[in-house]
Amino acid sequence: MLFFACYRKVTYLCSRLGTFFYAMESEIYVEKGRAVSEKRLLATLGEMIAEKGFEKIGINAVASRSGVAKILIYRYFGSVEGLMAAYIRQYDYWINFPRKLPRREELPDFLKKMFHLQIEQLHNNPTLRRLYRWELSSKNAMIEGLCRQREETGLWLIDAVSKLTGNDPKEVAALATIISASITYLVMLEEFSPKYNGIPLDNDDGWVQICSTIDGLIDHWLEKSAIGFSGKVKTLNNQTKE
Fold first, then answer.
1. Is the pTM for the entire model greater than 0.90?
2. In a domain, 212, yes or no
3. 188 & 133 share domain
4. In this structure, are residues 173 and 158 in contact, taking their beta carbons and an 8 Å threshold?
5. pLDDT higher for 174 or 225?
């Protein structure tokens, strides 16, 4: 009798463990399936917007081309607008900007590279450029959320650069705004206007010229605050040597 009682208990425990591991395996499978479907939907959206623009994007067309059921688009993203917002969130430069500060003496190169990469990322992603125009033409909670995420990064950067250079945060904010907003506007414009003030936007020469001028603005700004920035760098280096 004791043997059969133990056997029943062991059998019961094994069945419960089997059910538990099956549930875990099923959940992992579902999550993997969702990740694959989301990736496919975002890739399909990117292709369609690059080909036709965002104006003609519909949920039925995305579902048909991706091979993912329409109901899953609603389940994962809420709407085709939610899918577009998810694409922006995945690729937006400022939303995904790494919050890692350079050493003080590396700041000039850090700032220049930061804006160069903004140009490169937007220049190489026609879908993102078009979706930025979609953002400007719409107003909803999803877009407000994207703006808040960018703003958080911008405020963090302004505070960090202000502390590293000793400059007024308002001055840092104004300079950063002029440069980053100009980049966004010019990159979006290149699809419709090959030149702006004589600068070719449809080839690398124009963007080399723009990058060179951005570098000059940053150098001039840092030189203007040489007492506040270069002096601190010199003192810091001297302290390090000592």
1. no
2. yes
3. yes
4. yes
5. 174
